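Table S2 (continued). Query chain:
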Amino acid sequence: MNIYTHYSDSHKELYEDYFKASLRRLYDKDKVTIRAAHHRQTTSKGMFMETGWHESMRYKLQVILAAIEENKDGYFIFSDVDIVFYKKFIEDLLEKVADYDIALQEDCGSLCAGFFIAKGNQKNKKLFETIYNNFSDLVNKWGQSGSADQVALNYYSHMINYTLLDTKEYYTIGNFFDNDDGTHIWDGVSNIIPPKEMKVYHANYVLGVSDKVKLINLINKNYEKL
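Corresponding output:
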């Protein structure tokens, strides 16, 4: 299985110390090949939605389109780099996607662009080409402040046959955590106890790399106690 990701210098620690390290504890190179694209820094700190964020999303979509071409009629996994792996998950993903074009992590009832398994088929190629060619226009049209690639993915989701992954097995705090200001974004202090079913943790709904690392370490500590 090929697993694709991308990162810039601001996210190098996440890639090397958490993403890659946790994956290699579960699977060796014969089982899983990591296809990691290191690209130039387009933002100042790698902060969500700061200047240059949308440009980094172009790199991400280029990686996904290359993955589709390199895995024609087969399967591949795409993962953001702020993801940590806890239990073997590949066979489970293959079962989940068997009757679909793509199986994705759930993000508050919507499709998450940060972790999915997909077939290298024409439907997915057309979907991500459409997203690549139009996501900037959606930003200009709606003036939205969210991650434009994910907004576009949900907007064009009718183009493919998809399913969502179990929220406890493929965990992110956004599906379970509400802070005092009414958002799902971690407040930097609340104790987060992950579900014991967790196979994969995605550190979104956390602002900034330092807080992502802080919460990953907290979740690691609490997971060991389950």
